[in-house]
Structure formats: structure tokens, C-alpha cells
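Practice problem: predict the structure.
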Amino acid sequence: MQKKVCIIGVNYSYKILFQSLKILKNFDILGIAGRKKRKEFKKEKFLYYTSWKNMIDELKPDLVVIGVPPKEQEKILEFLLIKNIDFLCEKPITNDLKRINLYKNLVKKNSNKNLIDLNFLTIPAIQKFKNIIKKIEISKKDQIKIEWFLKPRSLKDKLSWKNNPKKIGGEINNFFFHLISIIFYLFGSLDISLISKNKNFYNFLFSSRKINFEVNFFTRSKINKFKIEVNNRNNKYSLNNNSKDYHNNYFIKKNNSIVFKKNFLKDKSRIFASKDILSLFLKKNHELEKHTNFNKGLEIQKKIINLKC
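Answer:
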């Protein structure tokens, strides 16, 4: 039996999430809601609404998939939690600690499946690297180095919320959220503190009783370079990406040799990454669900707010 789905948003939602749902075939997309009337959707099988509340009230979906700017998403999340409707949302979630507490209280009363689109965690090389880390049993004696030189595509659009911290944008709210999700996925939840900041360079300390390491995050870099390196006893393992595609072209090295490389389809990496997150709504107790549930997103968001970057 197919799950009835409604989508809120027509940009990322239609270009990525709608396409991801179509691949899975276990979802029946009943409606999409945007802010204004659109002629281009008249030929589609789904119904188009300019009110997301009306769409949900009329179509009564099993799942709501959200892809709108965070300020718009805040009210939608509260509504869905009160109504006990499954949802997939985007990060960032909010920049308001009071709202985080509100969401947490609503989640306690909610038995539904609520996930956040942390689609970096579906990247094959990141999942493979997690398996390697499990086997080598990391301790405080091991050296961990993490850096991300980031060249955001969104910089071309000066009016985008993604470049405006007042609209819960900026690289810390947006991309650093992803980096924290990857680090927590690989090493478990950790305390985070800001060591230093200089224009577009941030140096953080991630720590627990078992491990601690520094993370360098360069925003608005001229290049894209991602690297997580673990020096464990006599071996050095690293997860790398030196390409423009944030979701593709990752590879793993053991010492100086590439030992793993697997990609999504070219130009469709984000579609396939989000497809794997959406597939969790069709599964029970999948391991990845622990790292992509709404509570995990709230944990990460709260840590970002408390950093006061």
C-alpha cells in the first residue's frame, strides 16, 4: 500500500524531493503547495495549492515533505507535530531556543516518524568510513583531523536566505549543520566549543571522555575540499572529497592508497541522497533513523545556537 504524500515548497522540494519520491514508487504524491499560482503544474497528476494548511486538511496525507526556508518551516513543524503527522524537514530548524524546547515537548507527545533530510549520511563513502571506524576502535591516543574548505553555490544569489543569518541562513546554520551530523554519525555525540574565529575561518573543539579533536571550517573558500583523517596505531585512514559536488566523488584512503570509491549518478547526487532518507519511512528501526530523526536535528541545532558564532 502506497503512502499518501503532500509536499510543501516548489523549489528544492520539486527539483529534488519530488524526484526522489518518484524513484521510490511506494509513495502517492497527492499535492504540492507553494506561495503563488503556477501554470506549469497543470499537467501534473498532483493537485496544486497556495495554502499548505488547506492542502493537508483536504488531502489528509500520511507524510508531509517540507522544502521551504527555515522561517517558513518553523510554523509548519509546530502544526505537524500537534497534528501527529509524519514529516521530513530540512535544516536549519530554528535559531530560537524557546522554539527548540517547544518542539521537544511536542515530540514527547508524538509517536509519529519525523525525520530531517541529513542526506550526507547516505553517501556510500561516509557509510563505509563509519564501518572502518567501528573496527579500529578509536581512543584518545589516536589523532583525528577534520577540515572543510567550502565554496557555497548559494553565494551567487545575494537575496537567498542561505546567505542571511537573520533568516537562519549563513554557512554555520546551513553547512556546519551537515558537518556536525557527519561527525556525530561517525564518532557519536560530542561537546562543541569555539576555539577561534577569523572572518570566514572557524576552529572548533569536539570532545568527549573518550576522544577530542579540532575541526577547521573555512567558509567562502575559493576551493572545495573535505577531509576527515584518523591516525590509528600504524595506519592512517582518510575520507576525502576535492570536487565541486558536495554529495559525490568521495573516496577513502588507507595510508597512501585509495581503498574505496563509489558515486551516485552524475548530476543527480542530491536526488539519490535524499531518496535514501525518504526510504526510511518505508522501513522499521533502520540504523540510519537514529542519526536522522527530528530529535537528533534538534540536538545539533541547539549546539549551533549555543556556539553564538
